[in-house]
Specification:
single chain; Aspartate Aminotransferase, domain 1; Aspartate Aminotransferase, domain 2; globular
């Protein structure tokens, strides 16, 4: 493949952007592909190379790059009627009503502009509601760029973050209920909230072990703390319209959303019980305000995309397609790299370059690791971020990702990030993808 135009654009970008990019995850080696346009399940770069795309904007593009005509028309009509008003408008109300109707734990919500703003607002609201300061987060979990979440055992995780900003942050491993119980035994009366991704999405898309989320729910209820589900990534992707919390049958106090609910536009939200949500200004005293909150174009895009997904069996099709893809990848691994692990569910997937035992996974794990106690690999497959960090990320980035790209398949940029299917992907696309995996592995 020729990448000269992408190379030239990256050379220019290095002069105006730090590292030549606007988000570090895009800084792939030796230089990123510059996309010219999206087309269904594909992107076409500035050199004319066409790739099957499993990045999908890192999650928001549930329907792919080419929106159905009725969705495009609704977005265009809103732009023609005014991009924004600085006043309430019907699209935001209707999207909120849709979310409240379908997500059982949400009675009211507040729109924001991103996943980071959603988690920032959730943390402030949890602390304001409980009158407590301590925040329990998952080691290697990701909740955006808010300072309290960029912490490692209470220490700042980046220069520029003060010790004070992270002093009340406690981190525990994912999928370790004993660690959660120890933290609550010691700090329970001071904990405002536990914030957790139902699936560890930025570390390979790892499932919770059976009962783990239920343990967090029980502990927070016992100590009158809040359970916050970060569904920025999984919301309206895992579990269909009920989101991941419906899959695991756990009802959080607060939920953060972004990505899919904006239909490709920058939108976020915090939702929960009316009792908690009413603590936000103007009804309560916990401050939140935003110029662009409930931006009409993003509201229309998200609403029309979700309506389309609901009315056209998108989630059923994506679940079937995802199971087929993960199962086919597992078959390839069995022949080539039996130590590697397939993770993910519904329309999210990843191969983790683990050194696990090479025993065949249980039937229930064929379409993605489910931490089945009956599985011969139980206890050796990746359970938390440390296991992903121990995987062979260099081989993944330097060899595997590059080979997949040369075979016309674009994956997320590193071992950590999940990959995403869209409604635009087809069975033929899956077959092409599997052939690429065979060559790249």
């Amino acid at each position: 493949m020729d990448h000269q135009r992408s190379r030239a654009l990256y050379d220019r970008a290095l002069s105006v952007f730090p590292g030549g990019v606007n988000s570090p995850v895009r800084a792939v080696r030796p230089y990123p592909v510059f996309v010219d346009r999206g087309d269904g399940a594909h992107v076409v770069d500035v050199d004319g190379n066409r790739f099957l795309d499993y990045v999908m904007g890192y999650g928001p593009l549930l329907l792919g790059h080419s929106l159905p005509e009725e969705v495009q028309e609704a977005i265009a009509a809103q732009v023609a009627e005014g991009a924004m008003y600085g006043a309430p408008a019907r699209p935001g109300l209707e999207l909120a009503e849709f979310i409240v109707e379908h997500v059982d734990s949400v009675e009211k919500l507040r729109f924001v502009n991103s996943g980071t703003e959603a988690t920032t607002t959730a943390v402030r609201l949890a602390r304001g509601y409980t009158g407590r300061d301590k925040l329990v987060l998952i080691d290697s979990g990701y909740h955006g760029a808010l300072d309290p979440a960029l912490a490692d055992d209470g220490a700042p995780g980046s220069p520029g973050i003060t010790v004070g900003a992270t002093a009340d942050t406690i981190t525990i491993p994912f999928n370790d209920p004993d660690a959660a119980e120890r933290v609550f035994d010691r700090h329970g009366e001071s904990i405002a909230a536990v914030m957790v991704e139902p699936l560890l999405g930025n570390k390979g898309c790892l499932d919770p072990v059976p009962g783990y989320l239920q343990t967090l729910r029980s502990l927070t209820e016992t100590y009158n703390a809040l359970l916050v589900f970060d569904e920025v990534m999984t919301g309206f992707r895992i579990g269909g319209l009920g989101c991941a919390q419906s899959v695991f049958d756990v009802k959080p106090d607060l939920t953060t959303f972004a990505k899919v609910i904006g239909g490709g536009f920058p939108v976020g939200a915090v939702g929960g019980s009316a009792r908690i949500m009413d603590q936000l200004t103007p009804t309560g005293s916990v401050f939140h305000a935003s110029t662009y909150a409930a931006h009409p174009v993003g509201m229309v895009a998200g609403l029309e995309m979700l309506r389309y997904a609901n009315e056209n069996d998108v989630y059923e099709r994506l679940t079937t397609l995802g199971d087929q893809l993960r199962g086919a990848i597992a078959d390839v691994l069995a022949d080539t790299r039996p130590e590697y692990t397939v993770v993910g569910r519904d329309s999210m997937f990843k191969v983790v370059f683990t050194d696990a035992e090479s025993a065949a996974p249980a039937a229930g794990c064929q379409a993605g690791c489910r931490h089945d106690p009956q599985c011969a690999r139980y206890g050796t497959c990746p359970r938390d971020g440390r296991d992903i960090d121990a995987a062979n990320g260099e081989r993944w980035e330097r060899l595997f990702w590059q080979s997949m790209k040369e075979h016309g398949v674009l994956l997320t940029a590193n071992q950590d990030e999940s990959q995403f299917l869209s409604a635009a992907h087809t069975k033929a696309d899956i077959e092409k993808t599997i052939e690429a995996y065979k060559h790249a592995l």
